[in-house]
Design goal:
The chain has 182 residues and is of the alpha/beta class. It has 5 helices and 7 strands, in the order ααβαβαββαβββ. GO terms for molecular function: methyltransferase activity.
Length: 182
């Protein structure tokens, strides 16, 4: 696993052993960032200068990819101790500590923080966590109005956001949904 674009392109990222963390594949991250940068609803300003929130962060690959491509700041929320250890190591390997907040804990207990304009959610599949996490994060001010959300669910999950979908793609076992909150 590696950063696929930007200033840290090619930099390797560690992942915890076992199946507890399911890192987003390089090719899927590339496809997501290609859409964010080149789709009619996207553009460079979606990522460059953005405040990013990477929820159920795991290795931090999505948030670090955004930082590599010019995001100003990234907050990571992760509760698994093994994933947190790897996340911290990946942030340190990128020398990104000054541009990062790591929240060690449950997304449903997280407190207030910097509002993000770009949000990545990659929860465990099949638990309907995306809508609940969005509601909690909005309640505590961690999601800015009109934020762009990239949510990963299981391929066969049927949840769709209340907001119109900008894009939906399936990659292996994953289903990527991109939408803008109103």
């Amino acid at each position: 696993m590696r950063i696929v674009g930007g200033a840290w392109r090619g930099r390797g990222l560690a992942a915890p052993p076992g199946l507890g963390t399911r890192p987003t594949a390089d090719r899927v991250r590339q496809a997501v960032f290609d859409m964010l940068l080149h789709a009619p609803w996207g553009g460079r300003d979606v990522v460059e200068g953005a405040s990013v929130l990477d929820v159920f962060a795991g290795t931090g690959a999505m948030g670090l990819e955004a930082l590599s491509r010019g995001a100003a700041f990234a907050s990571f929320i992760e509760s698994d101790p093994a994933a947190l250890k790897v996340l911290r190591a990946n942030v340190a390997a990128c020398r990104a500590e000054a541009r990062v907040e790591i929240v060690a804990g449950d997304v449903f207990r997280v407190g207030q923080g910097r509002p993000a304009s770009l949000v990545f959610l990659d929860p465990p599949y099949g638990q309907d966590l995306v809508p609940r996490a969005i509601a909690r994060l909005r309640d505590v001010g961690r999601i800015a109005p009109e934020a762009l959300v990239v949510a990963e669910t299981g391929r066969d999950e049927t949840w769709v956001p209340d907001a119109p979908l900008l894009a939906e793609r399936r990659h292996g076992a994953a289903r990527m949904l991109i939408f803008r909150l109103s």
